[in-house]
Every structure is written in structure tokens, then in C-alpha cells.
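Question: I have long wanted to understand how a fold can be written as C-alpha cells. Here is the record:
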Amino acid sequence: MADNIDNDRARELEEMEDQRDAVTFMLARMEQANDEIRPWSVVQRLHAGEHPVMVFRELRGMTLEELANAAEVAPGLIVAIETFAQEGGLRPLLAIARALRVDLDDLVPWRN
């Protein structure tokens, strides 16, 4: 009788592990599905030294004014950042990254 109980518990544990593995696999696929595949033209522009804010703004089809409004920053700041005249600051860059739906790291220029 003890052997039957142990076997039942072992079966239950194995089923729970299988379910956990299935859920983990599904979550990993969902996370991977959310990763954006960037066009080769974006990579080329970044490698050529264009500012990422400009590249991603144009990829999203946003004007300077639209990005400034979405990020709640002055349009002049966007211009200054895109032309490398100013680095911006952490808070404005975070707001810009959110508006562009990219990570903050994506806005670091690729300067060679």
C-alpha cells in the first residue's frame, strides 16, 4: 500500500514538472515573439554613425514634434540629441526610449 502511495506521488510530481516545463517553454516563446527584428537598414545607419534617436524615430514613422510630444520633452532637445550637440540626460532619454519602444541601451550611439 505504501508503494502505491509513493508511486502516485511520484506520478503527480512528474506531471507537475511536465506542466511547469510546458509553461516555461510557452513563456519563453512569448518573450521571444516580442523581440523586435530590426531591418538591416537600421543596423547600417547605426553603424554609419547616425544617432539612434533619429534612426528609431524614423523607423517608427514619427516626426520630431510627435516624438517630443510623446516623450514630453522640448523638440529642440530632440534636435540637439540627434545632431550630437547634446547628450540629453537620463530622464529625457528614458522618456524618449519609452516613446520609441526601445531599451535605453538602444539609444547609445555606435560611434566608431
